[in-house]
Amino acid sequence: MKIGLGADHRGAAAAKQLIERLAALGHEVSVLSNLTTDTIDYPISAHAVGTAVANHQVDRGVLICGTGIGMCIAANKVHGVRAAVVHDELTAEISRTHNDANVLCLSADLLGQRLIEKIVEAWLGTPFQGGRHARRLEEIRAIEQGKDPARGQA
Predict the structure, then answer these.
(1) 111-126 burial, b if ≥16 CB within 10 A, otherwise e?
(2) Does 63 score more than 80 pLDDT?
(3) Count: domains in the chain
(4) Quick check: 148 pLDDT over 70?
(5) Rounded CA Rg of the chain
(6) Where are the alpha helices (DSSP H) in the chain?
(7) Is the model's pLDDT at 24 over the cut of 70?
(8) Domain assignment of residue 35, yes or no
(9) Residue 140 lies in a domain
(10) Which residues form the catalytic set?
(11) 151 within domain boundaries
């Protein structure tokens, strides 16, 4: 799987370590932000990864900042992105099975490196469940188009 990876300055060290783990698992990693401890505003990294996911240049994206929250908010502004901030393997799995999340947002400050790696592995290995959840994704797409998801119209 081709993974787009981005981080701000607070997530840079965790992202660098994650590259090695993803490569060891056989994934191709495309680093889409400058992984430095110099100040990098999270919306810039979120936009780069979100755009790569939305344009199908990568299969999925992983973003790391201090809390994961800012990255998630910014990435979800990109049309077609379903970003989720998660804190454990269970929420990672649910973000895939129920929401078909295509961008994973993580906290460098609140999660240790081993937990980050376990979360990413769980997220990458979990398929979308479909079924009733597919209907909900269509409702999300309606919102992206400025429509009322209850009515399917603007």
Answers:
(1) beeeebbbbbebbbeb
(2) yes
(3) 1
(4) yes
(5) 15
(6) 12-24, 42-54, 69-75, 89-97, 113-124, 132-144
(7) yes
(8) yes
(9) no
(10) 65, 98
(11) no
